Amino acid sequence: MRTTLTIDDDVASLLEKEMRRTGQPLKTTVNQLLRSGLQQATAPVKPKPFKIKTRRLGLPKEWTSGSVSELIEMLEGPGYR
User: Fold this and answer.
1) Residue 67 lies in a domain
2) Which member of 1, 8, 19, 58 has the lowest number of beta carbons within 10 Å of its beta carbon?
3) Where in the sequence is the domain holding 19, given as residue range(s)?
């Protein structure tokens, strides 16, 4: 495909540096960089694994029922309401 493309000055500067580094002509350099960029853009992103850091709450050992009301009563006393 043949087309006209306007390239920003900063991108042109980077292209020139890459052309000097590789010794490749502009057409080859642009095609390689476009391929690489498009492959990265369409590649699925792997999310970071979700991790939960646990810590002890320091709950009383006597509290075994799981009842929140019982826990509050143990901590605050029978007349907490």
Assistant:
1) no
2) 1
3) 9-42
Domain count, the chain: 1
Residue pLDDT, tens place only, 2-15: 899 999 999 999 99
Q: What percent of the chain has pLDDT over 70?
A: 98
Instruction: Record the tokens describing residue 37, joined without a space.
Output: 């960029």
SS (H, E, C) 21-56: HHCCCHHHHHHHHHHHHHHHHHCCCCCCCCCCCCCC
In this model, does residue 80 exceed pLDDT 70? no
Tokens 């646990």, located at residue: 54
In a domain, 29, yes or no: yes
Cβ proximity of 22 and 29 under 8 Å: yes
* pTM of the complete model beyond 0.85: no
Tell me whether residue 76 is in a domain: no
